[in-house]
Amino acid sequence: MSKLSEIHDWLQVRLPELLAEHRVPGAAIAVYAGGEVVDHAAGVLNTATGVTATPDAVFQIGSITKVWTATLVMQLADEGRLDLDAPVRRYLPEFALADEAAAAAVTVRQLLCHTAGFEGDIFTDTGPGDDCVEKYVATLGATTQLFPPGELFSYNNAGYCVLGRVVEVLRGKPYDACLREFLFTPLGLSHAATGPYEAILHRAAVGHLQPDPDADPVPAPIWALARSNAPAGAMLAMRPRDLLAFVRMHLDGGRAADGTAVLSPASVAAMQQRQVTVPCSGLMGDAWGLGWEQFDWAGGVVFGHDGGTIGQNAFLRIAPEQGVAIALNANGGNPIALYTELFPHLLRELAGIEMPVMPVPPAEPSRVDAARYLGTYASEVAELVVSQDGDGRIWLAQTPRGILAELGGKAERSELVHLHGDVFLPAEPHYGVHLPHVFVGDEDGRARYVHSGRATRRTA
Domain Beta-lactamase-related, which positions (predicted)? Predict the structure, then answer.
């Protein structure tokens, strides 16, 4: 029996067990190794209908879409129609932000690696029409700048919507049409959808949300985020096997399975090159390339991306030196637990990669003087207040704003414990993860940002 056959048999047993343990309604996974793919699914796509999950079911891939958008951008670079280091305004003269100097300076490369510096969690719905991305970019004129372009990493959904608009302008057609013509078609994808009207032609997963942490997941009230955020990950759905067809192209020097040239070898390599270090890792990569997350793990190079939409999550990891890739999709419950239990085993068995455990608070955390960290930090989606009590314990109060508030997000208060340096962890995990919070920068002796993948700026 081959190693991949053993993996398939293991998944048939282990995946249903994990779904039940972590209250995940349904999931599908595909594994690529030795030039072959095995896939498996378990659970249901919708608890209201009971439709079973199969390997051919399509799940939303969320922000993994960003790597597809980056690939569309790199195709234009291959054709000589786009310069990564040119200002965005060369292609979008109307591009505007609240900070005029920043808007004039931001480059395509900075958008690709999340260093453009403007507020990124903006999910304005500009309608379902083919002009929705154009209209979305036109709304960014009042968007505030967190830091000068190029100074720091801060995950930026809005920046990828701007990239999607660059693709539209240079191709002369809507973003969805570009995906279909320049990626779906040459890759021969049979189960990929740019939105609900295509997804409904397949067995389509529905996201599930939990009214409270102890409740069972229930179907989400809507299927997807606004179409205006499609280039950042609002709608793209596919089966894991088709996601791995995209990955194989990136492993094979930019060529599809039939030999079609989709991307140049130089652009494939450039996308995987480190561009910026991430202050806070946890679930995120330790660094970012042009679209791809990069992970500093023992045993070899690993890159990938994750995605999350309304009750759906996706995880993608690639070990290029060993020719191994894993794609996992889930539709609610605690999908992070699936990831942290499935991927270490698969990467170890197939690639000799040791995936590190998530950081956890020390048994006896040290007390620190929190004066540098105290205050209020705010973004479009949350207000964070850091305080210290008389016993020296540090507290983080989070109040959702914007779309997070609209989706029913609740105010939370959690204790932060010191890990090392300026890095703190919540004392209690969220979905099994203690997400690192890193205080970075200096503003009159106080931290300028609290960083948890996004840089949330001090306001008081």
Answer: 17-338
